[in-house]
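>> Question from a student workshop board

For tomorrow's exercise we were told to take the sequence and the ligand below, predict the bound structure, and bring the output to class. My setup keeps failing. Could a helper post the expected result so I can at least see what it should look like? The ligand is flavin-adenine dinucleotide.
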Amino acid sequence: MNPLIRLIPAPLVRFFARPYVAGDSLAAAMAVVHRLHRERGLLATLDLLAEDIRTPEQAQANLDTYLQMVDAVAASPLAPAERPTLSLKPSSYTIAPLQHGGDAAGSLAAMTAIAERARERGVRLTVDMEGRHWTDFTLSALRSLHEAGHRDIGCVLQTRLHRTEKDLDQLPAGMRVRLVIGIYREPAEIALVDKPAMKERMLQFAEVLLRRGHYVEFASHDDAYVRRFLGEVVPKVGVGPDRFEVQMLYGVPRERFLADLRSKGIRARLYVPFAVGWAMAIQYLRRRLDEYPAMVWLVTKNLLLRR
Ligand SMILES: Cc1cc2nc3c(=O)[nH]c(=O)nc-3n(C[C@H](O)[C@H](O)[C@H](O)COP(=O)(O)OP(=O)(O)OC[C@H]3O[C@@H](n4cnc5c(N)ncnc54)[C@H](O)[C@@H]3O)c2cc1C
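>> Workshop helper replied:
Here is what the output should look like for this input. Compare the format with yours to find the bug.
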């Protein structure tokens, strides 16, 4: 991460990154989800910002909030297929973050509890992919949940990692896959460093996954690559719009592009994060600012223009 972004004090990070956060309660986030659906025909995946866990109480509170999120989604007036999915990060439920691989104490138990409640209530989950120390743990947790009969859980694969080519072959049959370039900066020995190359791999892997019968969630704000996915990969494989969707982050200005996709009958979903404990939200927000520092100027400009 850019050292300057690391130096910005937490309250300022929170201020500048606010376009990316849907509110500071589950009710506020659900209101955003329903508005996006009503006004723009967009689907959502709801995420609690909960990283950098320091105490067992925080880990437990995150689990409790996810169980409440399952209930809130199940109670949504939207038709079941239109209800949000939930996105979760394994690191949210442990005070033993993985620095060198291994087992994340507490994470699998929490993920299992959420998956069980989600299955009971007909709610779909996606397990986000974190930095490289988490990849083995996360993929193995997903496999064991799948083997335990949880078929409504999707995974995320990061095309920047060289290992992903092999990980594709190990995926449980039919698992839903969100393809991303990956937001964590990884060393050149294990990952691509060139963004266009990562995006070319998104197209290449999307084709492999579609051919193998996976549902593909193409997550990128790069209009040119989204267009190539829709205009080259999808027709080449010959699948219909029930086999894929396009995903973007809440707060990234892509209104016109998404409206255009919707007008063509393409499913589009926004990743909608909310925060209850702001300390646990700061890591996510710093990553967003690191990825797109221009946000600092955009927010400042909007503020000045309002006066
Ligand atoms: C729905 C979703 C879920 C994700 N889940 C994960 C995950 O689980 N694990 C993971 O490692 N990564 C995840 N990511 C992040 C992803 O890996 C990329 O870091 C991110 O999408 C940026 O890459 P890009 O393909 O959009 O291309 P970029 O080249 O970064 O972006 C294309 C253009 O979009 C605009 N843009 C991009 N980001 C922003 C921004 N923050 N604010 C304003 N404009 C912006 C810029 O104009 C930029 O030129 C997710 C992304 C999305 C959309």
